[in-house]
Amino acid sequence: MLPVEIEEAAEIDGCTVVQTYFRIVIHLIRPMISTLVIMDALWYWNDFQLPLFILNRSRQFWTLPLFQYNFKTEYSFDYHMAFTAFLTSMIPMVIIYCLCQKHIISGLTAGAVKS
Description:
The protein has 115 residues and is mostly helical. Helix content is 70%, strand content 0%. Helix 1 packs across helix 2 and helix 3 packs antiparallel against helix 6. It starts with a helix and ends in a 6-residue tail after the last helix. The model has no long low-confidence stretch (mean pLDDT 80).
């Protein structure tokens, strides 16, 4: 929760409610918003069950986890192709995590210590 004193100070300085929201509140909650966006992106990127139920009819609709799942057949498993697909599907999320690591850490630790 953001302190009310910050909003009162902005009102005294002449900001309207909309200006206070866009100039102060958004900047204070940016680490939390970026953490939520990154965690949700990871969730949707790795989602398996919903695409399995909805998109498993045709290969043209498969997501990456469905392609990885379908390397397995009843009697065999193509390890080379499966692990290549695992590595390839991890690369974009690892790059995004490396670029946004400071936002993730600051968002997770925001508000942990009262100052």
